[in-house]
Amino acid sequence: xxxxxxxxxxxxIASAVVSGQGLPTQKVLTIDVAQAMAQAAMLQCxxxxxxxxxxxxxxxxxxxxxxxxxxxxxxxxxxxxxKTNSVMHWGKPSGPPPFSPSGTPPPALLPNxxxxxGGLPIKVGDQVIGAISVSGAHDxxxxxxxxxxxxxxxxxxxx
Length: 159
Fold this sequence. Notes:
alpha+beta; Beta-Lactamase
């Protein structure tokens, strides 16, 4: 009988601990924010004379916004998706791996990812809630700069 009381007491304590913790919370990338950042990135690249594709995905790596400017190359769509995949795989900007010793090949790529620059994580604090990529400026640094303009446009909403 004493064991029964002890088990009921322990279950009550465990229940209180679990209910006190609550459910985790997560910020969500809204369609309005995704579209605003995509539009800002595309307009920046357009102002610099580049025809690009901008891709925005959410935390599940599902497409949230896609803009392909008039005249953007067909490959820019696929490369943009590979950039966002790379960001979501690693949680950091797309691009070549860190320096490796001479003669050492870079690590193998994950399927549908790339070492090309131009993909950036969308973060709230340390939490990655999505990714934005720009492809088509013919230079990964220019792609990344346009993507950063998109992030800067909505920085006040990413808090």
